[in-house]
Amino acid sequence: MEVKLFGLPAEKGRWLFIPLGLTVLLCLGTVYSWSIFRKPLEKLLNIGATESLLPFTVLLVVFAVLMPITGFYINRFGARLITAVGGVITGLGYILSSFEGNITTLTFTYGVIAGIGVGIVYGVPLAVVAKWFPDKKGLAVGLTVIGFGLSPLITAPLAKSLIDSNGVRQTFIILGIAFTIIILAISTLLQTPPTGWKLQGFHAATKTSTGTVNERVPMLQSGSFYGLWLCYAIGSFAGLAAIGIASPLAQEIVKLDAATAASLVSLFAIFNGAGRPFFGWFTDRFTAKYGAILAFVLILIASIMMLKVGQGDALTYKLAFALFYFSLGGWLAIAPTSTLTLFNPESYAKNYGIVFTAYGVGALGGTLLAGRIRDIFGSYTAFFYPTAGLAILGIVLALFTLKRSPIVTAKEAERIGS
User: Fold this and answer.
1) Alpha carbon of 243 to those of 147, 226, 272, 377: distances in Å?
2) CA distance 141 to 406
3) Interhelix angle 49-77/34-45, nearest 10 degrees
């Protein structure tokens, strides 16, 4: 059937969904600039490192919990409505975070309310793009999700400038209003393919001798799901903790000034963003197993480098954190692409929502452990022992568990799932 998008044939117009989704995720990805907020908030609220990580940690967990729920309702309520509602809630969370209060209040307004908004919106652009690009799943999803990783490139210096000139509370208001307007505007343009639309010349499904369309074993019945979930949790554990401590670690261990540390967060965002299309392409080309192994090798190298960092060793710090950010960006492409290729692509929105819970578990474990180690030992250095150990475990898991689930007939798939 002939479908037009933005006045163009669908095969061409579908590419515009990538920059639109990227822009939405650019707004949501401001959470990755949280380390810029931490020092001002620690002074303002008189709190320690563990407490200043709480809003960020809670947001990531709430975000991960909401992702599966959203996946079940995209087809029912539509991409536009879900994006609009999530955008308003995200903006509201930021605005409410500007009110006078304590760390508990901030954890609720930013961590819970803004986290709900981010969780509602995040998966929608990815689901829209995945449906329009059955032929280039990894590349299209990787290019879209790059917005979340590149966000600190723009939002970290922006937040630093706003905090310096207006204070941290006013900065929350400005960002909240801006995000609401941008996401609402883009929500009016998002749509999934109409029923019956197929990309010309692309054939995804195969048929049995009886003419029945083949399907993959239901995801939760596949051992690959549990391997992917554990690998994703490990990758998130290291990467999200690194994002949360990047700026204060640079100031405390390497002795960089606050402005330089903030600028480096923006620099690292480039690697976070670049990791997404690279690993999306790599996973398409060499399979999920080898994409995961490569990401864990980079985490292991970065962890070993950070165990040797001392005062003035800025180069090693930059290289190590560039690798942490690059590998985390990689996991934000490896996981959705693997979900598309290892399991039934027709159930992608639901399946990836479930897989994404690993992101929340990794965020909770990594950020809390990093803050606790800092408070107990007075330094973040010891945190890189567990990241190195987990990277080795991840390599082993990826090697033996990440493989495509077998194809069975629709009748067999229904029997297995019952």
Assistant:
1) 16, 25, 10, 20
2) 24
3) 130
Give me the helix-helix angle, 168-187 and 34-45, nearest 10°.
140
Quickly count helices (H) and strands (E) in the chain. Answer: 16, 4
Counting residues of the chain whose pLDDT is more than 90, the rounded percentage is 35
Give the closest residue to 264 by CA, choosing from 166, 152, 366, 143.
Answer: 152
Angstrom distance (rounded) from CA 23 to CA 183: 8
Q: Report whether 254 contacts 313 (CB < 8 A).
A: yes
- The dotted CATH code for 4-417 is 1.20.1250.20
CB 236 within 8 A of CB 363: yes
Torsion of CA 406, 408, 413, 417, to 10 degrees: -30
Q: Could you report the per-residue pLDDT of 3-49, keeping only the tens digit for each?
A: 888 888 888 889 999 999 999 999 998 987 887 888 889 888 988 87
What SS3 state is found at 148? helix
d(CA 53, CA 45): 13
